[in-house]
Amino acid sequence: MRVLLVDDNLQMRTLLQITFSTSPNDQIVQAENGEDAIKIIRSQPIDIVFLDIMMPGDIDGLQVCEFIKTSEEYKSCFVVLLSAKGQKADIELGLAKGADMYLTKPFSPLALMKIVEDREFATKHK
Question: Which of 11, 54, 118, 120 has the fewest Cβ atoms within 10 angstroms?
């Protein structure tokens, strides 16, 4: 499983990296902004993206999500939005942009591991 972690906060990326480092078969890639995330997605296959919404730069997480889900080439990538924005309208907007899941911060690292495990199982049994 190839996992992309996108967050402008180094501590959050480190926490996510540690969370997924227990699975030796996963390849973890990190990006600190939307522009870098899109470059990575275009340059290598990614199975699942954990994506912060609010990031500096011209491209936020919602735009990255929309780029992935409207692209014929990348739309099969599973997108999990991670955000401190937890209002109903925020969640609905994220899902409307194509996110497969929306989790509010703080979240359980175990829940993230379960998402990856479930995706690995689904991928292997297509």
Answer: 11
Q: In what order do the strands lie in the sheet with 2-6?
A: 27-31, 2-6, 48-52, 78-83, 101-104
Strand 2-6 vs strand 48-52: parallel, antiparallel, or unpaired?
Answer: parallel
Cα→Cα distances 106→8, 85, 103, Å? 16, 11, 8
Residue where the block lists tokens 């906060």: 9
Contact partners, residue 92, CB within 8 Å, separation at least 6: none
DSSP codes joined into one string, 29-81: EEESSHHHHHHHHHHS--SEEEEES--SSS--HHHHHHHHHH-TTTTTSEEEE
Residues 93-110 pLDDT 10s:
999 999 999 988 887 778
Phi, psi of 52 (to 5 degrees): -70, 150
**Quick one: pLDDT at residue 125?**
39
| Tally of CA atoms within 13 A in the half-sphere of 8 that contains its CB | 13
